[in-house]
């Protein structure tokens, strides 16, 4: 009787739709291989949009990918965030290469120093990879849930002017469009920087005619939030913030709070539609301010402040390490993770990656003995702006490339 009922439900598209709408993304990704009927239902664009709308928590990061962009070991650590989701995939999983791969025999792996994650946006990940003994560089977009990969063609360069790709960022919002865009900052020797846009819908690059003089976006930290790419450019004494509206193709500068300056900058990034900035409030007492940008007024305001010494005292596992190493470089802010009911500050304290709940003030150790060298703060300032450890959120999505 039960088997007959299961067969009836399994073959009824309407009933399956009612059930599937409540299932997590990674379960649906596995169910696509059950039958052609299930595949067609789950891959339907209307179903994907309805699932995204009715499951807002699916857009909350459930994990993080960590790697050190300047350390010799390019290992990407996959960390699950307790309270935000379950186990997450790894970047080292085998990849089925599409037909447009420059070298079909090339094996792509984040652990082989040929493929580096450079940005993540709402479930899609942007990688830069090198081939021909690092003589050729290009970009690809990868969905780690469906394990799909799509290469992004390089934009054209002007042979009469020295040009290069300074940085690239993903822009993807499944509530707006099933298609993604890649925003490229192209360095130009005589002008500065120019913004180009690649659309997955057209498969082509478009010149926006938006330029920035003095290479203001060189070595800047950028992220996507609500239809725009935001950048933080850190100088020796000041911070500058820029916003590029992707639809309007307009660049504007956002004023910074007086207490946020170059030497005190620690983190900038978006999570669940909110943009955060973390700066040192008191260097001696190790107190951080967590700013959030109001998307209407475009003004920064302090949402939280964190006292690191008190945080360490509440967690015995990092107590000895944190107190024995009082150097400012022993503490680094990896990211701010926004949830529906609470947010968390993820930090690296002397090799211990911890999550600090900004509401309950509870501390959880996510990863112990992170075996990466800690650089001095002066070196980070001179290199101008790259974080010691890069942290990219993992968000499960069913959207195809």
Automatic annotation (TrEMBL):
Please report a single Pfam family linked to this protein: F-box
Q: Which PANTHER family match?
A: F-BOX DOMAIN-CONTAINING PROTEIN, F-BOX PROTEIN INTERACTION DOMAIN PROTEIN-RELATED
Official protein name in the record: F-box domain-containing protein
InterPro entries from the xrefs?
At3g26010-like, Beta-prop_At3g26010-like, F-box-like_dom_sf, F-box_dom, Gal_Oxase/kelch_b-propeller
| Source domain of life | Eukaryota
Domain F-box, which positions?
Answer: 14-49
Q: Which organism is it from?
A: Heracleum sosnowskyi
**Which residue numbers delimit the F-box protein At3g26010-like beta-propeller domain?**
113-309
């Amino acid at each position: 009787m039960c088997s007959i009922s299961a067969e009836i439900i399994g073959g009824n598209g309407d009933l399956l739709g009612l059930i599937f709408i409540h299932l997590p993304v990674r379960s649906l990704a596995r169910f696509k291989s059950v039958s052609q009927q299930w595949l067609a239902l789950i891959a339907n664009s209307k179903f994907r949009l309805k699932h995204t709308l009715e499951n807002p928590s699916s857009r909350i990061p459930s994990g993080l990918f960590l790697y050190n962009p300047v350390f010799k070991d390019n290992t990407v650590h996959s960390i699950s965030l307790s309270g935000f989701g379950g186990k997450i995939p790894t970047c080292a999983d085998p990849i089925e290469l599409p037909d447009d791969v420059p070298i079909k025999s090339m094996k792509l792996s984040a652990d082989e120093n040929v493929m580096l994650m450079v940005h993540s946006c709402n479930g899609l990940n942007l990688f830069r990879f090198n081939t021909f003994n690092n003589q050729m560089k290009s970009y690809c977009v990868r969905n780690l849930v469906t394990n799909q990969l799509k290469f992004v063609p390089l934009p054209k360069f002007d042979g009469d002017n020295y040009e290069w790709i300074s940085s690239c960022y993903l822009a993807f919002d499944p509530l707006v469009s099933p298609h993604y865009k890649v925003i490229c900052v192209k360095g130009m020797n005589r002008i500065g920087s120019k913004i180009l846009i690649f659309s997955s819908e057209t498969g082509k690059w478009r010149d926006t005619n938006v330029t920035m003089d003095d290479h203001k976006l060189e070595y800047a930290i950028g992220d996507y939030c609500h239809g725009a790419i935001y950048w933080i450019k850190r100088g020796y004494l000041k911070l500058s913030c820029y916003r590029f509206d992707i639809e309007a193709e307009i660049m504007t500068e956002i004023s910074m709070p007086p207490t946020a300056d170059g030497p005190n900058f620690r983190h900038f990034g978006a999570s669940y539609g909110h943009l955060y900035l973390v700066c040192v409030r008191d260097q001696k007492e190790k107190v951080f301010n967590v700013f959030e940008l109001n998307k209407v007024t475009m003004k920064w305001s302090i949402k939280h402040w964190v006292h690191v010494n008190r945080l360490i005292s509440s967690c015995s596992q990092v107590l000895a390490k944190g107190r024995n190493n009082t150097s400012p470089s022993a503490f680094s802010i990896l990211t701010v993770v926004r949830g529906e009911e609470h947010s968390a500050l993820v930090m690296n304290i002397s090799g211990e990656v911890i999550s600090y709940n900004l509401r309950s003030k509870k501390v959880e150790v996510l990863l112990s003995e992170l075996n990466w060298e800690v650089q001095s703060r002066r070196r980070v300032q001179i290199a101008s702006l790259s974080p010691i450890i890069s942290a990219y959120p993992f968000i499960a999505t069913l959207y195809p490339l």
